[in-house]
Design brief:
InterPro entries: His_Pase_superF_clade-1, His_PPase_superfam, PGM_Phosphatase. GO terms for molecular function: phosphatase activity. There is one protein chain. It contains eight helices and six strands. It has about 200 residues and is α/β, with parallel strands linked by helices. The protein has a single domain, classed as Rossmann fold, CATH 3.40.50. Strands 3-2-4-1-5-6 form a six-stranded mixed sheet. Strand 2, helix 3 and strand 3 form a beta-alpha-beta unit. Helix 6 packs across helix 7. It is globular.
Length: about 200
C-alpha cells in the first residue's frame, strides 16, 4: 500500500506564526496557497483528513472531493492557553518561557501534554493503517498537521531521529510504502521518502 502523508496548506494562524493546534482556522488567501494548489500530489483511492477545517479544505483542494474518513485522533496538539497566540504575544509569560526551555515537553496551561499527544496520534495512525490494510486499500492520502506528522514518522521509522527531525512545511508530503506482511510481523514501513 502507498500512503501519502500531507501537511495542510497555510492557515490563517500560520501567517501570524501562532500556535493553532485545536484552533479551527480556515486556509488563508495567500500567494503560497495559490502556489501549493498547482502542486501535483499522487492520486489516492482513499482520502483521510483530520477533522479540523484547514485539513479538510486542503484535502478538497488537492483531491477535489471530501475526505472518505475523518480521523479524530490525528488532530494537532491542544496548546491550551497558548492557542492562537504567537511568540510576541507569549514571550513575557513565565509559563511559556518555561515550556520553551523544556523544548515543548511539558504541559501547556489548560492544554495537552506532548507525550500524551504523541501517544494519541501514534495510536490513531496505527489503527487507521490496520483498517486500510484490512480493507486492502492500494493507496491512501492522509492530510494532517505538522505535529501529527512528526509524531507518526518518529514512531514508524523505528530510528533514533528526534520528533523535530520530521518537520514538514505547509503542503509538504511524505510517501510511505507498506508491505502488509512486513507490517504484520514488524510494524515497520517498507519505504519512506519526502515528496
Amino acid at each position: 500500500m502507498k500512503l501519502i502523508l500531507i501537511r495542510h496548506f497555510v492557515a490563517e494562524g500560520n501567517l501570524r506564526h501562532a500556535y493553532i493546534g485545536r484552533t479551527d482556522d480556515p486556509l488563508a488567501d495567500c500567494p503560497e496557497n495559490e502556489r501549493l494548489r498547482q502542486k501535483e500530489y499522487p492520486q489516492a483511492e482513499v482520502l483521510v483528513a483530520s477533522p479540523l477545517l484547514r485539513c479538510r479544505q486542503t484535502a478538497e483542494w488537492i483531491y477535489h472531493r471530501k475526505p472518505d474518513i475523518v480521523a479524530e485522533e490525528l488532530q494537532e496538539m491542544d496548546f491550551g492557553e497558548f492557542e492562537n497566540k504567537n511568540y510576541e504575544e507569549l514571550k513575557d509569560d513565565p509559563r511559556y518561557r518555561a515550556w520553551l526551555e523544556l523544548e515543548g515537553e511539558g504541559i501547556t496551561p489548560g492544554g495537552e501534554n506532548r507525550a500524551d499527544f504523541i501517544c494519541r496520534t501514534r495510536r490513531g495512525f496505527r489503527k487507521l493503517l490496520e483498517q486500510l490494510l484490512e480493507e486492502r486499500v492500494d493507496s491512501a492520502a492522509v492530510v494532517a498537521h505538522g505535529g501529527t506528522i512528526m509524531a507518526v514518522l518518529s514512531d514508524l521509522t523505528g530510528k533514533e531521529e528526534s520528533y523535530y527531525d520530521w518537520q514538514a512545511e505547509n503542503g509538504g508530503a511524505y510517501l510511505l510504502e507498506i508491505e502488509p506482511e512486513r507490517w504484520k510481523m514488524e510494524g515497520r514501513l517498507t519505504e519512506l521518502r519526502k515528496l
